Amino acid sequence: MCLLLPSAAHARGTYLAQLQARAARLHLSQRHYWHVLLHYESNWFTPGVTSAAVTPWFFNAPDGRTDPRGELDATLAAFVHHATVSARGEPAACAFIARYHWLDRQLHFDPRRMGRLRCPSFEHWLKALDPRSVSVVFPTAYINSPASMFGHTLLRIDGGGRASGMQLLAYAVNYAADVNQANGVMFALKGMTGGYAGRFGLFPYYDKVKQYTRIENRDIWSYKLDLTHAQIVRLLRHLWELKGVDFPYYFFRSNCSFQLLALLEAARPDLDLTGPFPVYAIPTDTLRVLTRQPGLVGSISYRPSRATVLRNDLGQVDARQRRAALQIAAGKAAPAKAVRALSGARRRAQTLEVAHDAVAYRFAAGQLARSQAVKRARRILLARSRISATRVFTPPPRPRVNPAQGHGTARIAAGLNWAHGRPSLSLRLRPAYHDLLDPLAGYQPGAQIDFLDLGLGVGLRDGRVRLRGLKAIDIVSIAPRTAFFKPVSWRVQTGVRRAPAAPLFADHPGHLGYYLQGGPGLAWGNPAHWSAFAFAVAAGDANSGLRGGYRLAVGPTVGIVGHPLPHWSLKLSGEVQTGVLGAAGHRDRLALGQQWQLGRNDGLRLQLAFNHTDVLNWTRIELSYRRYF
Amino acid sequence: MLRKIVIVALMLLLPAGYALADPDAGCGAGTQIWEGQTGMGPKLLAATTNGSFGTQTFGISSGTLGCSRNGTVTAANRLPMFAGANMETLASDMAAGHGEALATMAGLYGIHSRADQQAFYHLTQTHFAQIFPSGNVSAGQVITTVNHLMAQDPSLSQYVANS
User: Fold this and answer.
1) pLDDT of residue B78
2) Helix pair angle (A68-80, A97-107), 10° resolution
3) Which residue range(s) make up the domain with A99?
4) Which residue of A144, A284, A537, B154 is most buried, as measured by CB atoms within 10 A?
């Protein structure tokens, strides 16, 4: 630079001034796309904008994070003066290649004065990706972990030049909080309050497939996006800009799904994808926003997890094969010997494949040590390789409903409540996510997670509004046991409720207090149709309405949940609770809940409950209309 | 021939450490069956393994992932990396005589014709005992054995001679 002749520097200064003046005339810094590329978001309480990105070098102007116009002028200066972004080890025009191309389109850079754009690292990277199509990938919840129903989304970049059927060689674009160690409460707190830095990562897609389908047993849905090659390149140019850029990670909003939408806006600036999510972004809701855009989502595909495949295969073998497979998987019988008694090469091969998948599943579930699992699996495969029959199972069918077609995750309910002989109006609001009576289509059977479920009552005579309770978290996992799968079901619920759960507007108003209850359980059947469950529940209440101010009670909860018809959900449960600490006495409850799904986002729910305590018996009937959005 | 030149050129472009790296190292990926995986039970708050959290090593921060500074996989490393990361699936696919991972491996050898794919599946199924002599075989050993078997096969030898 110091060798530059003064006149050359002067000429550059003049050209820069021209560009900046033209940009000002065109109001480029107010354009939507400039705000997309810099991740500007309107401030909540003051006028102006702030970028969601926090990495200093992402901005060329000192106050570029809050000043779109200053940032645009400084960006042009960095381009004209061929500045280097040292954190990235490349010229500003390459580090901010999406901004460069967009500004070039608007201002028509003069190649003689700007120089030709040469970005070998980016070009090499783009060539290696060889992008042909982009899909949004959604791994569904994993079994027995309803919290994972909130889910995750990532992008898949499929390359060309590879034969079809080689999707595994694609790349995954993943946005995640960069954490190395943390776990537990601190982890959850930091995740919710922006204590972690979120970052984009690029991975071989097969690593993700392995993690989801074989280690975590989650089915994967992919939504292919109809993007032109130019749009895909725009997306990747912006992804390149975001390499090493930090965003504060907020579990509820500025999460994986939100950031992927922001990235897609770089490809299709005409779409407002992030707008519908001012407060929180749940992955399946973002899928619904994508599928609602006309012509954006093309083909939808499904990749079953190992557990799904194993369950599917088990449906295709007979009792003798199942018994033999169980013996082999448990290590109680030599594979080759155990299948010898079975007639037909195909049946023997089926038995061995099921046995192998069962071993692999148990290893992934932490029930089998690696040393044992590897040895056993190899012996099974060796026996299998000696049978030449192939494709011995029909693969699992694709579910008719994909997760984007499920009900909206927020729910509002209004209805009539009749308790202790008195009627009242009932209002409920639940921001997320799904309970066992909600429409099942697109959700994980047997998994419930309700978040901040607020119940209000309005007296018909006095018009008073009262808080009935707030379920902060209510999780139920009904994981049925079979000969092959031996999971432990569980439930946990916490929030604020009235004690001793007195009916509204009775003479016993009940006091509000904190409670926490839950416990392990066992379940049988198929949650997609009918299942039975039994839980051992412990419940703790801290409530001024109780004698002594608290109560710890224990007892069983048993019941059935099912879907007699496709649009009909039903749950019958009975619970007995005996006080063991604090306020004594019984509290028993028999409840029947039913919901008729009027449509994808409408339902009619009827609940009946008979309550019995030492001091009071009462019946509650509630009929409500539920709307999902 | 062209492929050879490209691979050699790519090797020359790589930092010395990569060219010398033992392909068994799989560029940081697990290379044995179920290696580096721990079993997992149910989770109360599943976010830890939900993919929302984890070390993000895209690009400049690390050179280990994908064998390239920017997260992509170089051609020379594609087969060992893929095999290293998919050992258990490759083993069960080979034993069953078909499967997506095995089809991908065939593709990485440049096998695209249906007849040769079938020959490749048949070869790996019938020689399973030789390819996986124990449960602790490494990805590098698997590839060496498969290369060796292919070289002796009349219809498949062309694919190893080229690479």
Assistant:
1) 83
2) 90
3) 8-118
4) A284
Residues 213-272 of A with CB under 8 A from B: 214-216, 243-244, 251, 255-256
Q: Quote the number of domains for chain A.
A: 4
Are B157 and B151 in contact by the 8 Å Cβ rule? The answer is yes
A203 lies within 8 A of chain B by CB:
yes
Same domain, A587 and A566: yes
| Contact (CB<8Å) B33/A390 | no
Predicted pLDDT at B155: 94
- Mean predicted confidence (pLDDT) in A184-213: 76
**Do A565 and A462 fall within a single domain?**
yes
The dihedral over CA atoms of A13, A14, A15, A16, expressed in degrees to the nearest 10, equals 50
Is A425 domain-assigned?
yes
Q: What is the pLDDT of residues B103-136, one digit of tens each?
A: 999 999 999 999 999 999 999 999 999 999 988 8
Are A445 and A580 in a shared domain? yes
Give the H or E element holding residue A395: none
Helix/strand/coil for A69: helix
Query: Can you tell me the distance from the alpha carbon of A286 to that of A297, in angstroms, rounded to the nearest whole number?
Result: 12
Same domain as A161, residue A106? no
Q: At what angle do helices B139-151 and B75-85 cross, to 10 degrees?
A: 110
SS3 label, residue A339? helix
In Å, what is the CA distance from A82 to each residue of A1, A91, A415? 10, 6, 66
A33 and A92 housed in the same domain: yes
The pTM assigned to this predicted structure is: 0.86
Residues A224 and A287 in one domain: yes
Which ipTM value was assigned to this complex? 0.87
Task: Calculate mean pLDDT across residues A23-30.
Answer: 97
| Residue of A85, A145, A156, A516 to mutate, interface with B, max B Cβ within 10 Å | A145
Please name the residue of chain B whose CA is at the shortest distance from the CA of residue A210. Answer: B86
Closest chain B residue to A489, measured at CA: B42
